[in-house]
Write a structure and sequence with these properties.
The complex is a heterodimer of chains A (286) and B (337). Chain A is an alpha/beta fold. Chain A contains 8 helices and 12 strands. In chain A, a hairpin with a 4-residue loop joins strand 8 and strand 9. Helices cover 35% and strands 17% of the residues of chain B. Classes of the chains: A alpha/beta (286), B alpha+beta (337). Chains A and B meet through helix 4 and strand 11 of A and helix 9 and helix 10 of B.
Chain lengths: 286, 337
């Protein structure tokens, strides 16, 4: 007899009502296939069958699906929200990942094997054996200038980013600099325009030639984008007008750093990346 | 035919259906959020009436709203006095713009922490509608609106277009409002808007904006006072939960990037209503948008009608936006200098 072993039957044998790492194996396979395709065409938006997740759409459901389809029992997962491990949404997702995949959780950037992040790139440099998963609200970098998705796809197919360049020129002429705050579009391998998710310009400038892969999941829009290791990533900018990072008017109130990305806090400034701030603070005062 | 009521499968099934109906009274289902939504859409805070209307309309929320408005139209109307800031007790306060705010962030009862996974265990206790815990539970030391600074005042290095104050406005239940609407009247009319419609429009706007940050969300309990019929002295007659949200959107001030604030408030604690109202208000104040025609092509229509997607998208403003807001402020402030 060759009895058909379904995932549900296997799960029932193990006495668990839920599949390993929450998602059923078909979904995981679908997501992994999309990831492979996305890695093969760096910066290209690959559609995938995004599922309803136990977090609201727009709350990291895309990043969560990527993480859950890659995580294994030997992994150590870190989830940050705007650089903070203790944000309630990040805590909820970390609990879901670690309980359903029975893996370890950490807040340390160096100990983690998978880091899921919303709107920040960790400031401590990641190694080649680490994986960065970003949550993306708007995967389409042309959405403001080409509202029609079909027209935008044609622009991508032709590598014709004239509307984005014109918009940048318009902002340069009218305002003296790009209009975008976070989410400044980047050119991948000098040819494909990509939204890096709403990371600050400080982080946009740190995307080039990273030794680790970056996977970007947009659950609401059902798109996956990937940057394989050592990909050339440059912000969309004119040669004589490079993109400038944000400035902060004071050092971090905690670690005293003047080079980190800082946000206003009670009239002073503090690092947005909590773990990097902790490491700097401990290095300064052991 | 009728005499042969033998025991058969059909009879068994009929009994099972009848039994299931009997075992499923409305009191076993917790409809408190739905009741709040019906009250907010009806513009009338009376949870018991909303529950009754929901029951009589077999759970049809739009019909229940209509029933409440029909009922309220026949009731005597007393003009309430404006709510005083020191009469509003804050039980939940969030800011997505800054990690630390004067007065502090109070998580309170956070609806986003409720599980989204369906629980199939059946040992839920019967919900006792008579002794239901109030949606807003006050701590003894809860701060008041008057004693809590506004988070919008922290935004100092950017041009902020503030809406002009234009009086108290009229009561949409009583007055005939004709366009052009003042901002107060517009907010009053929109505050009774249908939740789904508000969220869909807000999601449409949010998708077209470059920057949208929820500066402050407060859930509080407001004391309503009416003038005493004889002496005219203000008397407290009710305490109702209200949710107030302030957002900022990107805007243009004479060709320069700036921010525009929007404000929204709703009866009850359905926060997505207040967030949507604030987004709509801000978008109407930022010159240019909403006046720019929205193309209702299939992509837009499909995106605006997917409930979980639009709800999640509008509610995601509650998540921290510290890093991206700082990036936008640096951009706007840098240009201003």
């Amino acid at each position: 007899m060759n009895r058909k072993a379904t995932v549900a039957a296997l799960a029932a044998e193990h006495g668990r009502p839920q599949a390993y790492a929450y998602l059923d194996e078909d979904t995981k396979r679908n997501v992994r296939r999309a990831i492979l395709k996305a890695l093969a065409i760096p910066g290209w938006q690959v559609p995938f069958a995004s599922r309803e997740m136990p977090v609201a759409r727009g709350w990291g459901s895309g990043g969560l699906q990527v993480t859950l389809s890659l995580v294994g029992p030997a992994d150590t997962v870190k989830v940050i929200d705007q650089g903070d491990d203790l944000s309630s949404n990040a805590v909820g997702m970390r609990n879901l990942i670690t309980s359903s995949a029975r893996c370890d959780a950490t807040t340390s950037t160096t100990e983690a094997t998978i880091i899921q992040s919303r709107h920040r790139i960790p400031e401590l440099d990641l190694r080649a054996d680490q994986l960065l998963v970003l949550q993306v609200p708007h995967p389409e970098p042309l959405r403001r200038v080409v509202p029609d998705d079909v027209a935008a796809l044609r622009h991508h197919a032709d590598r014709d980013y004239t509307p984005a360049w014109l918009d940048l020129y318009d902002a340069e002429a009218c305002l003296g600099g790009p209009r975008t705050g976070a989410d400044h579009p980047v050119l991948v391998d000098g040819s494909r325009l990509m939204s890096p998710s709403p990371i600050p310009r400080y982080d946009v400038l740190r995307l080039d030639n990273r030794p680790h892969p970056i996977l970007l999941g947009a659950g609401r829009r059902a798109r996956l984008t990937a940057l394989p290791p050592f990909t050339r990533v440059q912000p969309l900018a004119f040669d004589d007008r490079p993109l400038a990072p944000e400035r902060a008017d004071g050092p971090c109130r905690r670690c005293g750093s003047t080079t980190s990305y800082r946000v206003p806090s009670d009239g002073r400034w503090c690092c947005s990346d909590v773990d990097a701030c902790r490491v700097r603070h401990e290095a300064a005062a052991p | 035919m009728y005499a042969s009521m033998h025991e058969n499968d059909a009879l068994e099934a009929a009994r099972a259906i009848a039994g299931r109906r009997a075992a499923q009274p409305g009191s076993r289902t917790d409809t408190s959020a739905l009741e709040e939504q019906v009250c907010a859409e009806a513009g009338l805070w009376e949870l018991a009436a909303a529950r009754r209307a929901l029951d009589q309309s077999r759970g049809d929320a739009s019909h229940a709203v209509s029933m409440l408005r029909v009922w309220a139209a026949t009731q005597p109307h007393v003009q309430a006095l404006p709510v005083r800031p020191d009469d509003v007790t804050i039980v939940r306060r969030l800011s997505s713009a800054y990690p630390r705010i004067p007065g502090g962030q109070w998580l309170g009862m956070a609806p986003e922490l409720r599980s989204r996974q369906l629980d199939w265990t059946d040992e839920r206790p019967t919900v006792d509608t008579s002794a239901r815990t109030p949606t807003v539970v006050q701590a003894a030391d809860a701060p008041t609106r008057a004693g809590t600074p506004r988070v919008r005042d922290l935004i100092d290095d950017a041009v902020v277009l503030a809406g002009a104050a234009d009086g108290d406005g009229d009561d949409p239940a009583r007055a005939v409002m004709t366009p052009p609407f003042t901002r107060a009247n517009r907010l009053a009319l929109l505050a009774r808007g249908e939740t789904g419609a508000l969220v869909a429009l807000a999601a449409l706007i949010l998708g077209r904006r470059q920057e949208a940050v929820m500066v402050e969300l407060t859930v509080g309990s407001a004391v309503i006072r009416v003038p005493h019929p004889r002496s005219g002295a203000p008397c407290a007659v009710a305490e109702i939960p209200i949710t107030e949200v302030e957002v900022v959107l990107d805007a243009d001030a004479d060709g320069r990037p700036a921010l525009v604030t929007g404000w929204g408030a709703t009866l009850g604690t359905v926060e997505r209503r207040a967030i949507s109202l604030a987004l709509l208000d801000a978008a109407m104040q930022a010159d240019g948008d909403l006046r720019e025609p929205v193309t209702l092509d299939d992509q837009t229509v499909i995106a605006a009608t997917d409930g979980p997607a639009t709800n999640g998208f509008v509610e995601h403003l509650r998540l921290p936006h510290y890093a991206s807001f700082a990036a936008y402020l640096a951009q706007v402030g840098g240009e201003a200098q």
